Each structure stands twice: as structure tokens, then as C-alpha cells.
Amino acid sequence: MSQSPAVPSLAPETQAARGAVPVDSPYRDIVPPLHLATTFERAGDGSYPGGRVYSRDGSPAYDGPEALLKELEGGAAAALFASGMAAASAVLQALKPGARVVAPRAMYWALRNWMIQFAANWQLTLDFFADDAELAALLQRPADLVWLETPANPTWEITDIAAAAKAAHAAGARLVVDSTVPTPVFTRPLELGADIVMHSATKYLNGHSDVVAGALVTRAVDDFWQRIKTVRALGGAVLGPFEAWLLARGMRTLFPRVRTAAASAAAIASHFHGHAKVSLVLYPGLPSHPGHAVAARQMQGGFGAMLSLRIAGGEAAAKTVAARLQVFQRATSLGSVESLVEHRASVEGPGTFCPDDLLRLSVGIEATADLIADLEQALAGV
Ligand code: PLP
Fold first, then answer.
1. Which of 15, 81, 246, 251 has its CB 3.0 to 4.6 Å from that of 214, i.e. a possible disulfide?
2. What global pTM score does this model have?
3. What is the tens place of the pLDDT at every residue in 131-186?
4. What burial letters (b/e) apply to 255-276, b meaning 16+ CB within 10 Å?
5. How far is the CA of 148 from the centre of ligand 1 (A)?
6. What Cα–Cα distance (Å) separates residue 90 from each residue in 67, 176, 198, 237, 353?
7. Where is the secretion signal located (predicted)?
């Protein structure tokens, strides 16, 4: 049973809400069935009339979510992975040993650490940049891959995707953007010149803290993309069909979830900007944020639902605030319907660039007034 491709002429909100609707089911299902087969029958002549051989090469359970993601990002093809890290690793493994990679200093910490280890093993040259000027300077020399994350964990620096794409291409590099935080609701990196978009689909795309998944969307189906697909099929880091099904279900509500959470995050950021117990609010939607002008240009309709608060009084005060919160739950991860708080420096550990007075907030879809009241009562205790 195949699933309907997304209809490109429809608005992204409509495509997402329709999800992956099966068209050739005898039952005319409104939601896709759970497609579990791992292997597919050959005809007597040795061919595969169903077009599938073995689900590690690509399960029919991926068709719906991959088609929808391809449309939402405006790409030529999409591929699901067993996690965001598996998706990112597939990009790195598609590079040839000796390649030069340029990546941001501020990015998802575990991926940055993995890149450093991977680069040593794969004999990659890896250079980090702190801002747009350093990125431009590093791209005066040839490179093979530029990695971006914008807004970037956990301080929400903004990188100008269009400028980075120009500079990357002039240096002979592909541009890959981890767009987990803005999601296609707010940013479409391929339209800004990126070559590949990466998602930890564990976060907003699924949105319910019950699936670990990753995704890549490419602008072109070229040799590099084929190498990525080979890494997925033969490296074997593939998503299970039930996880793909849950992801497809989560993506149907992507737009209202992300818009509600982002509106709440913006209200929280404005409320605590200038608060006596908060030394700094880090949120690209605030005009005082150093990346605000670029964010306002490349993010459409909102600035995302992630923000960080630097707590006056330092590390101990920040930990006390986290401990006192009752609506925000203390847990890692982000992008779900429930709000989460994390003392990020503790999680990142030795060598972190994260200030020790910083609390990272993943804003969910609860009532904004409850979230503000929760933060107020927690701050009142320090
Ligand atoms: N990219 C970002 C921005 C993330 O926040 C994360 C996870 O926290 C990842 C990538 C890795 O994704 P996963 O946990 O799905 O492997």
C-alpha cells in the first residue's frame, strides 16, 4: 500500500495537516496503516513488482513522512534516520577522508564533540567559527562542507544562511543546516541557498517526546546524496516503522504546535527582559539580541520556541530556580508540547562554552500565563 505524495500546490499547513494519507487502501483509510514488512516478494522473473527489496534500503513506512518533509523544506528528496545524530553522521561519513569541514563553535554540544572525534578518525580538517566574520575568513580557503545551526544551542546565535551559502559555494563547499530549532515553519534553508537540511526529528517534527528520529532533506539528488543513502542502507542506522508512523502523526500538528509555543516563548522573553533577577534573556526575537536583524530576515513568522535565561546570582541561583520550577519539567531535549528546563552547563560538562548561570527553556504549548507565573515564583526564591 503506497501513501499519497504531498500535493505541492497546497499551503504547507494544509500539506502537514493532511499528513501521509493512503490513497490506494481498499478501506479508504484517513490515516496511514502501520507498514511492518521488512522484505518484499520477487516475481518469478526475478523482478520486484512492488519496487521494494528489503526495508533497510527504505521502508514503505518512510514514504509519507519523507514526501511531506521534502515538500515542507522545498527539497528534491528526504531521508529518515534512526536519530538526529545518525542523520548528521551520515553526512560526515559521505565525505572523503582528507575533506575540510567548517562548523560553528555554538551548536548542539554532543554533535560538536562527535564531529571532533569523527574528524580525527576520518582524517578530516575541522575548523570552528564564532561569528559570521570568522566564517567568512575561514572560507577564504577551499572547503568541502560547512555546517550551520541557527538559532544555535544553547545561546541562540544567529548565522546568516544566505551569506554562508554564498561563501561556502565560493570555497567549493556544500552547506548543511541543522534546522531542528526553527523547523520549516520558520526557516526554509534550501531557499536561502543551503544544500542539505538536517533535523533531529525527535524534537519539533515529532513533538511529543516519544520518538527518537532524524531526517535530511537535499536540494539535489547528486553523488553526495547517493553516498548518504548508501550510508543509511549499509551503515544500517534505520528508523523502525512504528517510529516513522508516530513521526508522521506528530508532523500533522507541526504548524499549530510550533506557532503556539513560539508565541509563548516570545511573550516569556519580553516579560523577563530587564527583570531584576535575570541578567540576560537570550532570544533572537528580542530586538536587543545581536542576531535579531538577520533572524528577522531569514525567519518567517516567528523566532522559535527556545530561549535561555541568565540568572542574576550565578550558577547556584540558576540551579535553585531550576529546582523550584513546577510547570517547567527538569529534563534534557526540546521541541515537545511540554515545557522543559535545563541547566545546560551541567549537561555539557567540562569544556562547555555555556555560561554557568544559564537555564535553557524549551517552551511548550501550556498557557503562557502559567509558564510566566512558574518562572516568577521560582525566581522569587533566589
Ligand atoms: N541537533 C540539535 C539542534 C539537537 O538539539 C539534537 C538533540 O538534542 C540533535 C541535533 C541530535 O538529535 P538526536 O537526539 O535525535 O540524535
1. 81
2. 0.97
3. 999 999 999 999 999 999 999 999 999 999 999 999 999 999 999 999 999 999 99
4. bebbbbbbbbbbbbbebbbeee
5. 13
6. 20, 12, 11, 9, 26
7. none
Topology adopted by domain 254-380? Aspartate Aminotransferase, domain 1 (3.90.1150)
Give the residue extent of every domain in the chain: 12-251, 254-380
Nearest to 313 by CA among 267, 355, 269: 355
Q: Active-site residue numbers?
A: 56, 108, 178, 203
- 204-240 tens-digit pLDDT: 999 999 999 999 999 999 999 999 999 999 999 899 9
Measured from the CA of 201, which atom of ligand 1 is nearest? 15
Q: With bands split at pLDDT 50, 70 and 90, how would you rate the model's confidence at 20?
A: low
Mutate which of 200, 340, 354 to test ligand 1's pocket (most atoms within 8 Å of Cβ)? Answer: 200
Mutate to test the pocket of ligand 1, among 83, 202, 206 (most ligand atoms within 8 A of CB): 202
- 12-251: CATH number: 3.40.640.10
Atom in ligand 1 nearest the alpha carbon of residue 180: 3
